[in-house]
Amino acid sequence: MKFSIITFGCKVNAYESTFMKEQLLKNNFIYCEDFKESDIVIVNTCSVTNTADNKCKKMIRSIRRFNDKCVLVVCGCTAENQREKLNDLNIDILIGNHDKSKVGSLINDFLKTKKKYIKFYDDRNLPFEKMCVESFAEQTRAYVKIQDGCNNFCAYCIIPFTRGNIRSKKMEEVVDEVRDLVEKGHKEIVLTGINTGAYGRENGLYDLTDLIRELSLINNLERIRVSSIEITEINDKFIKELEINNKLCGHLHVSLQSGSDSVLKAMNRKYTKDEYYNKILKIRKARPNINLTTDVIVGFPGETEEDFLEGVLFCQKVGFSKIHVFPYSKREGTKAATMENQLPNEVKKERARRLIEIDNKLQLDFNKQFIGQNVKVLIEENKNGVSIGHTENFLKVEIAALLKENTNYDVKIVDANVDFVKGELL
Prior knowledge:
Radius of gyration: 22 Å
CATH class of the largest domain: Alpha Beta
Largest sheet: 6 strands, parallel
Structural class: alpha/beta
CATH superfamily of the largest domain: Methylthiotransferase, N-terminal domain
Number of domains: 4
Shape: globular
Helix content: 25-40%
């Protein structure tokens, strides 16, 4: 039987989908790219915004429209958050974020009994669900899920309700998984989680920096990348590791969400903009060429034009290399959904447009500073006679030559655009 997996959302979902794929392949199912030709279709959903929820539901309807005979499996955050709204979509197996590791056995049971299965755990105190991916055959860098859940409860965010409490994979299990991935040929791994910087916090025995140090001892592992981290979780210990550990990549995605103290407070973020900026100064001192990217929400309830402009100036002051701009999305069940002064969509869209213009300039300014510099590029793909890869600080580089994938090359940066730089082989 043939199966497809459609994945929405974050790197954690990508990791979990890869695990599900491996398990089905081991059970003699055959992977198929086209869901219309598959006997089994799994949709791993995302609920980070209303738009994400709607895309997932639209996809589920499309699957049933074009392939009404398939076994349809739906899991993930939209399933957790909107389970009642999925009841009429003719789903055969409906689960949340827990039990994704059991999808293979759930499908086998359904094929035998033809009995629909719905299971949710209305409990935040869940154990870490053990998964171990053997290889990311279709990409150079390998994701490793080390953490799940979030305890921050930011006013705008539904994810703590869909992912549960913070919990971490045992350090020895992470080390073993990474060692196996490196033996399969991966030179770069990405540590990922719902709140990655909270790794180990629930047991107090070790933290993210301790894990990075252990992983750095693995032979032939060249790069350790952190997918995202909160500014409050970047302590002096981590910054020191950033300074001395060449395997730890010089790229951090540190969500800001707003550059206005009044908006940050309303969002229930745990820092002021001065605290954020002072930490950024320490990071840049430790790693001068670091690439700092961020998320910003515009149009949060009560955000004034002055708040927005304050945030724009702050983003320019920090000098981010990339800002992921999100118009505020009202999420039922969150504190922000009940707040007064909800802003019109046209105001949110206009502010998003203005901040994206600033972002384009910041990206170009960041990329231009590397013109004339020599860098190492790990090649990830070849497309139309051009090799594409990234530096350790996540500078996207295009080289007009066919180079071997998963191999590092010394390259000189000769030109820069908004989205990438051009390099010449040394």
